[in-house]
Design brief:
Blueprint (H helix, E strand, L loop, with lengths): L1 H13 L38 H5 L5 E6 L4 E3 L3 E10 L5 E12 L4 E12 L2 E12 L7 E9 L5 E9 L10 E4 L4 H8 L3 E5 L31 E5 L21 H4 L5 E2 L11 E5 L6 E10 L2 E6 L11 H14 L12 H9 L6 E4 L7 E4 L1
Parallel strand pairs: 2-8, 9-10, 10-15
Antiparallel strand pairs: 1-3, 3-6, 4-5, 4-7, 7-8, 11-13, 12-14, 13-14, 14-15, 16-17
Length: 375
């Protein structure tokens, strides 16, 4: 996710008219005054394991294919549109450069490919090469696509991910009782072995002090006096059956924006020590609270799935939330809904009533101090 932020920031500068260049403060972590784990390399300039030099050069090199598009999430009744250009700052112009494209899914199935243009590319940016349009009607289920642009005979190549969701989605409650709190009916259903979905967006108090945005902590939250955001992305298991209808990597990507940016988190420090949420938000590493936006658990004789993400409002406009809602309900109505952890009704209720001050608060009087204080 950090590399993703670098990629889109650098590409944005390369698409800017009359931009003279850019300078990064460093590519490595900074361990001096106010430690900052912000580098794609560690303090010894070694790779961390999630991006290498070849992958970095796809969007940061003398010649970079670029794309302009209105959005990265589509429904299958729309047409994916992309304008392609090239930023070229090599020693000399490229003569009769062949620009080719490939659109494929994460399993390698090719949906479109061909030659976009063959043309001279002068030194400079804003070198337009053409536009692409891909009707998405053949895609009937939620899918991640990848568009790759390559200049034949050179090392210049770049790519971008898109997500396509069905335009028509049936939200079937099935045997699931949906509520926005752990009410008496939910407890009765759980006592009788039923399934309960708690959609608690905007209602959670324990975790309310954590401000989450899509973009991560800048530098560190100690040096900047706990300035929001406080989180650094999410962690999920992409092979979890919940995500069969909501394709994802193990980390944040652009399709999560609608659900993640400014969404409330839940804090689980009062849950069993081994407990892990299904969608875990990564706290600032100065505090490292166990927080998240979705969890599942065995409760009494039944099963609960609870989320603090807004998955229900304006479904006609919010296709990502609508797709997540469908994925959750279909998963809960399947035989694969088998939570690993057990929690009590009281622990769930405390998510609505407890505050950070009930347990501990944090002082941050100087950049070198971040201490728990028992109230």
């Amino acid at each position: 996710m950090q590399a993703l932020c670098y990629k889109y920031e650098i590409e944005k500068t390369l698409r800017t008219p009359d931009y003279a260049g850019f300078q990064l403060l460093a590519l490595n972590d900074y361990s001096g005054q106010g430690t900052a784990l912000v580098g794609v390399l560690d303090v010894f300039f070694e790779e961390k394991g999630y991006i290498n030099s070849a992958e970095w050069r796809r969007f940061c090199s003398p010649t970079v294919p670029l794309m302009r598009t209105d959005k990265f999430v589509y429904n299958n009744k729309e047409i994916l549109k992309a304008d392609i250009e090239v930023a070229h700052f090599g020693a000399e112009a490229l003569k009769q450069a062949e620009i080719v494209y490939t659109l494929k899914d994460e399993y390698g199935k090719v949906y479109a490919q061909g030659t976009l243009a063959t043309q001279d590319i002068p030194v400079g940016n804003l070198n337009r090469t053409g536009s692409l349009e891909f009707p998405l009607t053949d895609i009937q289920e939620a899918k991640k696509l990848n568009l790759e642009i390559r200049i034949t005979g050179t090392e210049a190549v770049n790519d971008w991910n898109f997500w396509v969701y069905p335009a028509q989605v049936t939200i079937a409650e099935g045997k699931v009782y949906t509520t926005d709190t752990l009410d008496s009916k939910a407890l009765e259903i759980l006592q009788n072995g039923g399934n309960v979905l708690i959609t608690a967006a905007g209602k959670v108090s324990y975790g309310k002090e954590v401000v989450q945005q899509f973009t991560p902590v800048f530098w560190n939250t100690s040096w900047f006096k706990m300035r929001p955001p406080h989180t650094t992305g999410i962690l999920v298991n992409p092979k979890h059956p919940l995500f069969r209808q909501f394709p994802t990597e193990y980390h944040s990507n652009l399709q999560w924006w609608e659900l993640l940016n400014r969404a409330q988190v839940m804090q689980f420090t009062h849950f069993p020590p081994a407990f892990q949420p299904t969608v875990q938000s990564i706290d600032t590493w100065f505090i490292s609270r166990k927080i998240g936006m979705l969890f599942e658990a065995n409760v009494l004789n039944g099963k609960v799935l609870m989320t603090s993400m807004d998955i229900t409002s304006q479904p006609e406009k919010r296709m990502v939330a609508r797709q997540m809602h469908k994925a959750i309900l279909d998963y809960m109505n399947s035989d694969q809904f088998r939570p690993q952890f057990t929690v009590t009704p009281q622990q769930i209720s405390e998510l609505f009533t407890k505050t950070a001050g009930d347990v501990k608060s944090y002082t941050n009087d100087s950049p070198d101090e971040l201490k728990p204080k028992i109230n």
